[in-house]
Amino acid sequence: MLKLDQVRAGYGAIEVLKSLTLEVRAGEIVALLGANGAGKSTTLLTIAGVVPVRSGSITWQGAPLIGKADAVLRQGICLCPEGRHIFPRLTVLENLISGGFLLPARGNAAKLEEIFSYFPLLAERRRQLGGTLSGGEQQMLAIGRALMGEPKLLMLDEPSLGLAPQIVARIFEIIRRINQQGVPILLVEQNARQALKIAQRGYVIVTGKNQLTGTGAELLASDEVRQAYLGE
C-alpha cells in the first residue's frame, strides 16, 4: 500500500531522513523504532505531506503520493501526532467532529458511534472540554479524532508517551482492535516491547537511515534491539 524508496527529507539545511526505505502492506501494523532524533516523527510528517520530500519517492496504492497535507489526508492517510494536539477549548464531541470534516454531515453520526464503541469514556464525556481531560483521555480523543477521517492508513506517533501502565495497555488493545477492522497502522512508539508484540513487521532507523528490519518477533529476539531498546 505505502512505500518509501530512498527518501530524503528535512528542515532547512538539516537533512533528517537519509535514503529511508520502508513499506506498509495491507492489513499490517508496522512499528518504526529508533532513538530520539532518529527521524521517526519526521518520517510520519513527510508521509503526511507536512515535510517535503527532497529526493526519493513515496507511493500510495501504486501511485505517487504527491501534495500537501490536505491532499494526503483526502487520500485516506491520517496522522495522530505526538503530543495529542487536541483543541482544549472545544468539547470532546467538537474535537471528534473536527476530525470528520471530510465526511458528509450525515456520516458523522455513524462514525461517532464507532469511535464511542472503542472509547466508551469519550461518549460519557462528550460535552466536556478537551483541555479538562486526563492525559490518557486526551490520547483516546486524539486517536478518535484521527479515526473520524475514515483512514485507509492510520499513523500513530508515540500514543503511549507519558501514560500510566494501565492506560498504555488499553491504548494498545484499541490499536489492535482498529487493525483487526482492516486499517493498516504505521506506529512510532518508544515502548518498543509493546509495539513489537502487536506489529507484524518493524523497522529500526538510526540517523534517518534503515538499520534493521524484520518481523515483530524477529526484532524482539534481536540482541541489538534488546540491548538498545528493551533495556536487556
Could you explain how this protein is built, in words?
The protein is of the alpha/beta class. The protein is built from ten helices and ten strands. The protein has helices at about 40-45, 70-75, 90-100, 105-120, 120-125, 135-145, 165-180, 190-200, 215-220, 225-230, and strands at about 1-10, 15-25, 30-35, 55-60, 65, 75-80, 155, 185-190, 200-205, 210-215. The strands form two sheets. It has a six-stranded mixed beta sheet, sandwiched between helices. Strands 2-1-4-5 form a four-stranded antiparallel beta sheet, with helices on one face. A hairpin with a 2-residue loop joins β4 (about 55-60) and β5 (about 65). α3 (about 90-100) runs parallel beside α6. It is globular and about 45 Å long. The chain starts with a strand and ends with a helix. The mean pLDDT is about 90.
The gyration radius over C-alpha positions equals: 17 Å
Largest sheet: 6 strands, mixed
Proportion of β residues?
25-35%
Order the strands across the largest sheet as they lie in space.
Answer: 6-7-8-3-9-10
Count of helical regions: 10
- Overall mean pLDDT stands at 92
Could you tell me how far the N terminus lies from the C terminus, measured between alpha carbons in angstroms? 34 Å
Give me the oligomer status. single chain
In N-to-C order, the SSE pattern is: EEEHEEHEHHHHEHEHEEHH
Cα shape:
globular
Global structural class: alpha/beta
Share in helix: 25-40%
Number of strands: 10
| Poorly predicted segments | none
